[in-house]
Automatic annotation (TrEMBL):
One of its GO terms (molecular function) is DNA binding. It comes from Bradyrhizobium hipponense. Belongs to the 'phage' integrase family. Residues 258-271 have a biased composition (Basic residues). Residues 1-73 form the Core-binding (CB) domain. Coiled coil: none annotated. Residues 249-271 are annotated as: Disordered. This is Tyrosine-type recombinase/integrase. PROSITE patterns: CB, TYR_RECOMBINASE. One of its GO terms (biological process) is DNA integration. Residues 90-271 form the Tyr recombinase domain.
Amino acid sequence: MIEDMTVRNLSPATQRSYISAVSKFSRYFGRSPDRLELEDVRAFQVHLVSTGISWPALNQIVCALRFFYGVTLGEALIPERIPYAREPRKLPVVLSADEVVQFLEAVSSLKSRAALTTAYAAGLRASEVAGLRIEDIDSARGVIQVRHGKGAKDRNVMLSPQLLGILRTYWRLARPRLYLFPGRDEDHPIDQTVLHAACRSAVKAAGLTKRVTLHTLRHSFATHLLESGTDSGSSRSCSGTIICRRQRATRRSPPIRSGRRRARSIACRWR
């Protein structure tokens, strides 16, 4: 199965997800997955629904099983008989401009604040923010190059002057070498779990009552673009205006308290 995914150039994240799903399927029945049949798949789906699994997570497992049976085992008829769950259509949670400012003010870490600001101002996913390299920031053209985004596709997204200014300040303070937001090892990107944890902490610190995740920033970005117009000029204006409001607000805010002198110094300079 790994070879099948590799030759089809599935992303490492997708490969890990598929392997995990098929392994979970196998463990549930205590048998090798190639000995399990369509009836077993249906029983497994019923079990998953009973656990309260989210619809996106359930459909991700369906994708993995369809790939396993259709590609790896060559069972052409089985995949079409493994149904996707019909996900209830719900409007995504969206933050107002004031709530975006409130949220970003509550991010305590310099690196996390710069990363989450980038997630909002460029409309990026967590994996895309984590994978950014220094060379991906094209200040001359005003774009950020996103490598291996969803579907393993590259694309360019807008880089507003306000976000560029924030990233330049961050770079002067943090001096990253390869990845814009490195992990503990400078040669590796920050782990996405760190960004999600920073997001949860900021939501709590900001006192937001909405169910906010890092992906909420992306939804909010898209909504604010629609509200301001979708041409490139409006796009830059929309994200730039909110970031400027955050900068003005944070200049009036007291400095972040920290247990470490260097962290406190960086936080104050960042503000």
